[in-house]
């Protein structure tokens, strides 16, 4: 039998440690102070003080590097805001900020979430300007959302403690790819309305950056949830093999299905044929790992599985994602931290 690596997802909390927060707080205060004094060191300001030969933006080279251009108009910055918009960031209405001196006052007194976003944009711009290693807009958005979620969790815990309620466990979050695996990512899920009842499966294959490759949904009639989960894994691996995947990470929210694949005695098991087919597919993929994931991080496959349980067709291929999945996919691409319910 091929060797199968299965990892159980016990705890996943996206966030930033307190030591990192304390280490950066003085720089946030410095940036806020510069904004208040109208002395943020943009190239326009340095050019005005004869410290630069030009006021053009260091990154894009097209615009004049004012604070408005840095935070909102530079093409690199607009990519960050666009990704935040797609994943439902609460303070995304950047275009409503006054583009004059009053805008600086707005930023200094802006909601905490927007200040986090501005801080990470400012940090990455400095890294790019001074030739230090810097992150892509995708990674910057992930940092902003993770830090914002950490801050909300910390506030929630503080409020509960102030109310005299003891909570030893911080609220946990999970992303669609909580172990930050590279290569191709496969999400599978089964759905049973009644257990047993009308059942379906959902499969999503995408890159590690969240780019949709292909999806599958289907109806399997009356079945229980475990059978639906096993069929979903089989269909997902079949798709991966057909696509020529050599490095694959498979996420499933069913610990029972993963246990059956790894340990079941096939000849004596009611799903022995399915399990043997799965193991055959496993042997066809050079580098394959299975992870258990919380259901909140498996939302796209779950949506397809529920759709499949209501369809008449046994098998539907999705070359492009259905419209009702676009918001979820955008959040996944930005590594949005879903709260564990």
TrEMBL record:
Coiled coil: none annotated. GO terms for molecular function: nucleic acid binding; RNA-DNA hybrid ribonuclease activity. Pfam families: RVT_3, zf-RVT. InterPro entries: RNase_H-like, RNase_H-like_dom_plant, RNaseH-like_sf, RNaseH_domain, RNaseH_sf, RVT-Znf. Residues 180-310 form the RNase H type-1 domain. Gene3D superfamilies: Ribonuclease H-like superfamily/Ribonuclease H. PROSITE patterns: RNASE_H_1. PANTHER family: OS05G0353850 PROTEIN (PTHR47723), POLYNUCLEOTIDYL TRANSFERASE, RIBONUCLEASE H-LIKE SUPERFAMILY PROTEIN (PTHR47723:SF19). This is RNase H type-1 domain-containing protein. It comes from Striga hermonthica.
């Amino acid at each position: 039998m091929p060797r199968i690596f299965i990892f159980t997802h016990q705890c996943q909390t996206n966030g930033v440690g307190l030591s990192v927060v304390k280490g950066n707080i003085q720089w946030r205060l410095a940036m806020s102070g510069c904004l208040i004094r109208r002395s943020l060191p943009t190239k326009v300001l340095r050019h005005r003080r004869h410290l630069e030969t030009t006021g053009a933006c260091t990154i894009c080279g097209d615009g004049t590097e004012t604070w408005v251009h840095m935070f909102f108009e530079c093409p690199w910055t607009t990519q960050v805001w666009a990704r935040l918009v797609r994943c439902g960031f609460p303070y995304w209405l950047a275009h409503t900020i006054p583009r004059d001196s009053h805008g600086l006052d707005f930023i200094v007194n802006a909601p905490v979430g927007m200040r986090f976003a501005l801080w990470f944009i400012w940090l990455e711009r400095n890294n790019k300007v001074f030739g230090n290693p810097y992150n892509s807009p995708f990674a910057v958005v992930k940092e902003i959302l993770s830090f914002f979620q950490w801050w909300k969790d910390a506030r929630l815990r503080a409020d509960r403690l102030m109310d005299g309620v003891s909570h030893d466990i911080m609220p946990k979050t999970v992303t669609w790819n909580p172990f930050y695996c590279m290569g191709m990512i496969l999400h599978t899920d089964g759905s049973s309305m009644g257990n047993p009842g009308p059942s379906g499966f959902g499969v999503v294959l995408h890159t590690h950056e969240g780019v949709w490759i292909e999806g599958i949904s289907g109806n399997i009639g009356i079945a229980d949830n475990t059978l639906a989960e096993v069929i979903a894994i089989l269909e997902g691996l079949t798709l991966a093999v057909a696509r020529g995947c050599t490095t694959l990470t498979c996420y499933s929210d069913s610990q029972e299905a993963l246990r059956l694949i790894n340990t079941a005695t096939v000849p004596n098991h009611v799903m022995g044929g399915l399990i043997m087919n799965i193991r055959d597919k496993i042997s066809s993929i050079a580098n394959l790992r299975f992870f258990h994931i919380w259901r909140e991080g498996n939302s796209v496959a779950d949506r397809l599985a529920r759709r499949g349980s209501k369809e008449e067709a046994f098998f539907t291929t999705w070359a492009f994602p259905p419209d009702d999945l676009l918001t979820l996919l955008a959040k996944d691409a930005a590594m949005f931290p879903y709260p564990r319910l």
